[in-house]
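REVIEWER CHECKLIST
Item 1: Sequence provided? yes
Item 2: Single chain? yes
Item 3: Sequence as submitted:
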Amino acid sequence: MGKQLPASELKRDESLRVVDNRTGKEYTVPITHNSIPANFFKGIRAAPGPNDRPEDETERGLRVADRGFLNTAVIESCITYIDGDNGILRYRGYPIEQLAERSSFLEVSYLLIYGALPSPSQLSHFTSEVLLHGPIHSDAEGFFRSFRYDAHPMSMLTSAFAYLGSYYGEANPSLQGQDLFTKAAKGDPAALQNMDRQIFRLIGKATTLAAMAYRIRQGRDFVVSPTGMSYTESFLYQLDHLSPTDHLSESHSNKPHPVLAKALDILFILHADHEMNASSTTVLQTGSSLPDPFSAVAAGCASLYGPLHGGANEAVIRMLLSIGSPKNVPAFLEAVKKRQKVLSGFGHRVYKTSDPRSFIIRKVADEVFAVTGRDPLLDTAMALHDAALKDDYFVSRKLAPNVDFWSGLIYRAMGFPMDFFPVLFVVPRVVGWVAHWRQMMLSPSGVKIWRPRQLYLGPSTRDYVPLDERTGAFQVGVGMEPSVIEHSGMTKRRKLAEAAGKVRSKL
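Item 4: Structure as written out by the authors:
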């Protein structure tokens, strides 16, 4: 792709030379950090050609089309680096392997948000603030009890984050002024303190809200976050403690199992951030209009809810259950090759070789299974894992197991229901979201609302036709008119009654 110039004509220059074959004009586009500014192309203009429509706006400059943001850098960031071709993931320059082995979730949280590993006193202060902000207003009990008994925990959690914003008017730029947080970029200490207070609240209350969404499904009273425990220990305690009035005994008999707490801590580290993924982008897209951070996090939560994002590990378990046993793996893989089945937990949008998190999580899985017992699905999982890695069809397509393949098995072994898996993804990812949000608010150039362009392919100008002058169907076809919906229950009976009334009126 591209024509190689003779060596005699080649001179290294950090720019891109573009020739517009419509006009014959040549342009030089600057290259910075191996990227070109999309805005530059607005200056490349031409008169409309024979195949151009007015809506193509050729005289207003070229637009850059990138469906799904496959090759668009939307922000400059110092937080997370991913080299998908070589299976590398680093937080603030530190390899994920080192952090998972030697660090803790709250230390990694500090690193992601503030840019450096903390000193002992800094970590102590940060940990204290996060855990102190865990408890939530007692009114929240009524909020959670307003949901149906079978409500999905992600629906509750998404709503709960937005609900949190109603408590803290001092965190709302719509009420306090749109520069409430952005003036922190100029060193305003009050703005920085206000920003950090909301970050403490979001991280601290993430486990509380998640536990409340879990316990309401169990029909149990809510538990106040305890003291004297780590972040993941506190979370497990709030999930599983039988009575809100029971307290830790001197022997710590009610403290969560250390292997499970440590496993969850490592999983939280692995899920804390992943660069510009769908939910992080959603948080920044929402945050660019300067709402309160609770609303931005709620938007990210809704994005992560989707099966193409946070539901991947749940899809792995459902896939393994559908396979049934190791003997059915060969037939399943053949069905995948024929595109009759979907292989979940293999491959990644970013990683083209292997997901570095998958090697870490495999070791964690063994440690958890040693405590919880061997899940019958593990035999099927291992058979699928081994068969896929030996099959040229999957190897050639670089479909190696990713983090979701093992995390679902660990969560299942720990006793979590499948629809709670995305919640266990959200809790640590809140850290990544607020790290990116904080970085955006502290941008020296300010915050610009994210307003992407589109390629309009719809009709050109049309004149309105009054309803009584329209003959026949203006637009028919699948998806081009409202669907006919089948009604039942109350609506069906009402429609039948209305129809009967019309018949009687004609008699």
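Item 5: Key structural point noted by reviewer: The longest strand covers residues 15-20.
Item 6: Recommendation: ____
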